[in-house]
Amino acid sequence: MNLLVILPILIPLTAGALSLLGRHSQRVQAALAVIGSVALVASAVALLLATWEHGHIVTELGRWPAPFGIVLVSDLLAAIMILLSAVTGAATAFYSLGSISIAHRKGGYFPLMHLLLAGVNGAFLTGDIFNLYVWFEVMLVASFSLLILGGERAQMEGAVKYVTLNLVSSALFLSAIGLLYGLVGTLNMADIAVKLGEVDSGMTTVIAMLFMVAFGIKAAAFPFFFWLPASYHTPQVAVSALFAGLLTKVGVYALFRVFTLIFDMDDPLIHQVLLWGAGLTMITGVLGAAAQFEFRRILSFHIVSQIGYMMMGLALASVSVLALAGGIFYIIHHIIVKANLFFVSGLVYRLRGSYELKQLGGLYRDKPWLALLFLIPALSLAGMPPLSGFFGKFIVIRGGVEAGAWALVAAALVVGLLTLYSMTKIWAEVFWKAAPEHTASAPSGSNTLLYATVTGLALITVAIGLGAQPVLVLAQAAAEQLLDPTRYITAVLGEAP
Amino acid sequence: MTSLMALVVGVLYAAAIYMMLRRSIVKLVIGLVLLSNAANLLIFTAAGLRRDAPPLVPDDAQVPAGLVADPLAQALILTAIVIGFGVLAFAVVLIRRAYEVVEADDMHQMRDTDT
Questions:
Q1: ipTM of the complex
Q2: Where is each NADH:quinone oxidoreductase/Mrp antiporter transmembrane domain found (chain A) (predicted)?
Q3: Would B41 be classed as within a structural domain?
Q4: Which residue of A111, A159, A225, A320 shows the fewest CB atoms closer than 10 Å?
Q5: Does the residue A475 lie in any domain?
């Protein structure tokens, strides 16, 4: 048993359970949110360092040996994702302490937040395909409840779509697992990878496509993204930020895991579907954003468009290691930046009482520091050097050039430009133009914690941009691990296949 | 037997998708129920239908004698049923709340957040 691999799941689960027991005391909830999130960050850092040093870290739960028992596996990609989820979780915890109302806290906000993190971390660490499904459901149930906390009409309408599409995705995922089990008779992902190599059946492609659709819905890839812009702008802004940062990326992570480990990326059909999916996801997302005039809806559509860059990295993985490394770099950059932009939109709402661009304005004059804090993630999202987004896009596109995928490279560049258009639209409308006549007065209450969270994430963005080299080295090492599945298989099954 | 089950699974999927394409949110949830059951039956069928003994190990042995049914597929289905039950219970409460707030059970009345 290796405690390091279990802690990222155990800490939020414990914090969530204790938080539920202490739900009548605001101080207990707040203390648990702080302690839980800080402990999670610490354990995530320790896990990443250990994984960097030793390679794959495997733990067999209940000492049932693989492939019979459930294993938890930490490779570099999983450890990176855990750290990102811990940082986003901590940021959300601090932001929530300053922004979530007492009524919502009594509705169980903090226990659900911890539970969501436990589900996300479990999905990153598990090495068992059915266990992945179970963690997905843990995450989903927590996210359903967070989404409707407050019970307003928009939330209900958004939640009906969100719940339906996610349950359809789960059913397809479950069907794929059933067919896969029927074919190879095992659930351990490393074992599946070995056994599936020995099977020559058209069923493999069917199962691969079922996984693609199931994870594509979770990741909000084209053409399955409709649930995301219909629901992500409806809940509390801290919830929006947590979802925007983490949830779709769990789908992307599952795609990365399954299509590097289990299925053969050289299969022309899988390759083509991923390529087209990546390109169309980028373009439709950014065009959708261009048509929007609500702060959080613009950001929601940009999540979709950015998923395309990550899929582009995966799609080109069989041709260029650099592209896959770029995809991983992009995930690192994107989670931090996207959560931060939602946090900024929440601050704007607290100051002006609206998310509609038309009703906002004049914030650069009133709050120059907030304007700066918006500019850092916004320009990073658009890919301005020297911020993190520039390097993310640069590496993915460089990988695309190496692979000779010119159409996709052109799409990625144009989408980058259109992202800049969206961000300047927000800048011009919210910060630059004069405030409209009937501006709401600033509501009372301290925003210190919110500013601190936003500043912290902005600093991380700048740090990733200025220290891009070490992050790239990490992403490249993770990509090389992914592209050499024998290392994963040997680590789990204990012998060369 | 397997072909019959395959047919049943197929019909269940088709019925589920048909129900989910209707405008009523009650039918939407019925569709979700059918879909989750279709997936469970699919696992059951894909894992192999056979008339073997239950997977019980005799007292004086380490392994079961002869061919037995695969218990893992049944464990998967059991887990999936429990999860599906919890999630669908949530979905039922959700559509009830949505009906109260929107005052209609029509998906076309729920398009405020789409545009």
A1: 0.94
A2: 128-419
A3: yes
A4: A320
A5: no
